[in-house]
Design brief:
The chain is α+β, with helices and mostly antiparallel strands. It is built from 9 helices and 4 strands. A 4-stranded mixed sheet has the order 1-2-4-3. It is globular. The mean pLDDT is 89.
Length: 180
């Protein structure tokens, strides 16, 4: 629920505001508030518990596409890496007997890049284009501005380095994804 630094209630409202700006209705936002899944960049979450939550949600909403982090978690954040682990084939295998993967559901992994590439914004396009990947997603200028406005809704998390991220990160413009 985003309760790092005891800001859970503030972060829930920020998420709702951000999703609304992106056209995502509140009814499509699911928050998980579980003591074994704390919002903490140093804590690895329980793979089976997390996989069960995610698979249950996929089954309940008949979801056919999941986008998540790769093994690097884009920023090395332990919670992000835990999502990859839970959604990898090993994690799903633990929970699939209870919540089988919806037929036709695909998983795309957002590829982590090194620090140099992460902060060269649109200049990373030729590199991303030449490297192997299943999907190369490039935002228009309008989409990039919308994404930045949505990120700014999370004011409790906008520390100095996230302002740099908003200005220079390739992820605000370019996203390389790999099928799991």
């Amino acid at each position: 629920s985003g309760n790092y630094y005891n800001q859970g209630e503030v972060r829930k409202k920020e998420l709702e505001q951000s999703c609304s700006l992106l056209g995502i209705p509140a009814s499509d936002v699911t928050l998980i508030d579980h003591r074994e899944l704390p919002d903490d960049p140093a804590v690895e979450w329980d793979t089976q518990l997390l996989a069960t939550f995610v698979l249950k949600h996929i089954a309940a909403k008949n979801i056919n596409l999941v986008v998540t982090f790769d093994a690097g978690g884009v920023s090395g954040h332990a919670n992000h890496i835990s999502l990859y682990t839970a959604l990898s084939l090993e994690g799903w295998a633990l929970s699939r007997t209870v919540y089988p993967l919806s037929p036709g559901c695909h998983v795309l992994l957002l590829q982590s890049v090194n620090l140099f590439r992460k902060y060269i914004s649109i200049l990373d396009l030729p590199i991303s284009y030449l490297l192997p990947g299943d999907v190369l997603f490039i935002l228009t200028e309008e989409e990039t501005e919308q994404a930045k406005r949505a990120m700014r809704c999370h004011s409790s998390q906008l520390l100095w380095f996230r302002h740099i991220y908003l200005l220079f990160s390739r992820y605000m413009v370019i996203n390389s994804l790999q099928l799991l």
